[in-house]
Specification:
Length: about 110
């Protein structure tokens, strides 16, 4: 994850692959990382999900929503909601459907948050 943070964006897809097979401990760290990417670079995260089957999209979006197991902090949740809703509103954008799925999973993972 440090490579990604230092600018090597090629590590996102391999980390998403690991997320699909991770145990609980690793999933916590990856979930937080996925949430950070989704907040900071939502289109990059969605573009990476777009190439995957729907069931994988849902699982990875849910991981981002859960973060480390406690859900997204309020400010992160709000920022992610705003950015995903903007992308959903772009009807002819291929990312709109992925953003809609991602938003639904984020909401499920944070159902106790306002």
């Amino acid at each position: 994850m440090d490579f990604f943070d230092r600018g090597d964006k090629t590590f996102l897809n391999p980390l998403l692959d690991v997320g699909l097979k991770s145990d609980a401990d690793l999933a916590e760290g990856l979930g937080s990382f996925f949430a950070d990417v989704l907040r900071q670079e939502p289109e990059r995260f969605l573009q990476a999900l777009l190439k995957r089957p729907v069931n994988e999209q849902l699982h990875l979006a849910w991981m981002a929503g859960v973060e480390d197991g406690g859900g997204m902090p309020g400010d992160t949740l709000q920022a992610v909601r705003v950015s995903l809703k903007r992308i959903v509103a772009r009807n002819h954008d291929p990312l709109a459907k992925v953003a809609r799925r991602c938003l639904a999973e984020i909401e499920k993972a944070n159902k106790d948050e306002k």
